[in-house]
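Why do we care about 3D structure at all? Because function follows from shape, and shape follows, mostly, from sequence. That is the central idea of this module. The next example makes it concrete: a single protein chain, its amino acid sequence, and then its structure expressed as tokens.
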Amino acid sequence: MNLKIGDKAPHFALKDTEFKDVSLSDFKGENLVVFFFPMAFSGMCTQEMCTIRDDKAAFGNLDASLVAISVDSPFTLAKFKNENGLNFPVLSDFNKDVSLSYNALYEHFVHGLKGVSKRAAFVVDKKGIVQYAEVLENAGNLPNFEAIKETLNKIA
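And the structure:
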């Protein structure tokens, strides 16, 4: 079932690149943008994460925190975060539970890979309610960053 605007955001508790627990409840009382991405070090994912990195101040000016989630291991994500100077938490959904709960998981991906996060973006407001939901079937597309910012501007 797809998440819709007005739905309560599914809870998550995942390990970051330093094996610290990060959960949705850590952001209670804050607006949060949750980005899912398929695979660290792939061209489009690197482009997406670096775009978010370079625009982090704009999200901050809209009173929003950011997290990015992938099914890659915390070890892989630590190297990816470090090499790209990512300035927001990058979380490992290695067991795929969170990607599945946000309906952002490819059953079948390219090259015979299974169980990979879809490229997706969700804006969760200060009360934990989804205010924006975008799940892309084509991993070659990027989220609509302007629509995300417009949503944040409305709820800021």
